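TL;DR need structure tokens for one chain.
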Amino acid sequence: MRIFLTGATGFIGSRIVPELLEAGHEVLGLTRSDSGARALEEAGARVHRGTLEDLASLRTGAEQADAVIHTAFDHDFSNFAANCEKDRAAITAMGEVLKGSKRPMLITSGTGLGSHADGSPATEDVFDHAHPNPRAASEQAGQALLEAGVHVDAMRLPQVHDPVRQGLISPLVAISRAKGRVAYVGEGLNRWPAGHVLDVAHLYRLAIDKALADGTPGARWHAVAEEGITARAIAEVLGAGLGLPVTSLTPEQAPEHFGWMAMFAALDMPASSAWTRAQLGWNPKGPGMLIDLQAMDYSAEALAG
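>> reply
TL;DR here they are.
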């Protein structure tokens, strides 16, 4: 099958490309740059030039494909709400050209959207349409398309990591270096789920193959290898790596220290992937997040790169 992959040269997308190719699919990868085009060609994928902002390019890519995997996202978290709305527009544009067909689209959101009010781990069967996380816009767009007859599934991501990048923890490292200390809020017992990038990429491939094979829309998958790692445990590893003190902040102190990231710093976001594993036979094998954080190069030169 020909699969249109947005974010094809990104952190996760670049790992999905070989997964799809090894499974016998043809990959049409979205890129905005010459360097991205070269990387896709070298990987064995076809190139589709365009951007998230150019909705016409997204529609054209989707029109050429048997399925769509949408991983592209503007990760400027200082403008998070606006970027979530941009993602809504992108999903809607691609979905429009899939109407009237059985071609599936696998979109991306976050595990927090499956959270339970009692604080138990998020699950795949829950979607709070009114969730305060702006990333709800992605699943709201997907739900609207689903109700219009488009086959839409959602991949919910935790903190996706390797020894170089770790989701929201990467900007946390930059904040810690700038402030001269690594901080957490209160007792630091709030938890963040995690998944190694290679395990996550494999799950995308399993999910799109499932969609192509059985045609049942509306699945929500959790790419979670570890249900919840405490903020304090993360901070302690970062402190050791950066050679900085680790301190607790009050909720009132958090905005000054964390800046835009204060909205995430104290969130308790444990998430389960039990249903995902049972349905897709997914068995994550990569190292845990703390292991990857311990293996990271904390030199100024490496972090600047």
